[in-house]
What does this fold into?
Amino acid sequence: MLTLLMSSVADTSTDLPTWVLPVVIIVPIVTLIIGGLLGFYIATKVFKKQMRENPPITADQIRAMYAQMGRKPSEQQIQQIMNMMKNQGKK
It folds into this structure.
């Protein structure tokens, strides 16, 4: 009885060609790796572009920070800080 069960199990495994199992395992893994890398690359590009177009701090916020410190900033100082923030975003 046990040999009959073993032989029937062994017979069903020969129905598939030998190349199917490696393809079923390797293709999804490679696809996930490529998708993850591509998704990361696209996400970083989009994030950097958004940060360049919409900086996290505006000139009005810089003026408000200077006012909280009790100073009156010149326009040159504000532009200097904005340029520093832009240059830092390019790195």
